[in-house]
Amino acid sequence: MRLIFSVLGLILVGCVPTVDDRAALRPAVLRDLEGYAIASCLAGQTDAYLKDQGDAWASVIVQGMKGSVDAVAGIAEQVNRENAAGDMAVIRDESQPQKGKTLPILHCSEVIDRPAVRLEIQKAVVALRPSYGQN
């Protein structure tokens, strides 16, 4: 049994993308901007812990990003609109069947796929790509 897991581990290790592969698939500028959108979404939630984590994450991205910080203003604005729209997944709460449970982390993880947010991300990618040394 141990041999099977060892062989499987070797096979899987060979399938793990390298840093260069990941950069080709998802450039740093896109990773930063998508992360910023998700972090901004979390910062806009009512839960204090999510707000704090989102704000901290967004700060880390802004402090480390290349180019003008103004490029992310449209992303933050659009994410705020999405949060205000209140279109968040809700599931049945097993401990309180009469009450729904909202899923803000799911909402924020998917906010980057909303057309208006994706458009703002793409605009910022175009604006910041030269600062990241990408064509």
Question: TL;DR?
Answer:
The chain is built from 7 helices and 2 strands. By secondary structure, it is mostly helical. Mean pLDDT is 86; it is low at 1-8.
What does this structure look like?
- With 135 residues, the protein is mostly helical.
- Helices cover 65% and strands 8% of the residues.
- The chain contains seven helices and two strands.
- The protein has a two-stranded antiparallel sheet.
- The longest helix is centred in the middle third of the chain and has 17 residues.
- The N and C termini lie far apart (49 Å).
- The N terminus is likely disordered.
Mind sketching the topology for me?
Blueprint: H1 2-15, H2 19-25, H3 28-43, H4 48-64, H5 73-85, E1 90-93, E2 96-102, H6 104-110, H7 115-128
Helix pairs in contact: 3-4, 3-5, 3-6, 3-7, 5-7
Describe the main β-sheet briefly.
2 strands, antiparallel
Q: How does the overall form come out from the CA principal axes?
A: elongated
Number of helices in the DSSP assignment: 7
Strand content: 5-15%
How large is the radius of gyration?
Answer: 19 Å
**Poorly predicted spans:** 1-8
Number of strands: 2
C-alpha end-to-end distance:
49 Å
The ordered string of helix (H) and strand (E) elements is: HHHHHEEHH
Would you tell me the overall average pLDDT?
86
Characterize the quaternary organization of these chains.
single chain
Helix content: 55-70%
Question: Keywords for this structure?
Answer:
135 residues; mainly alpha
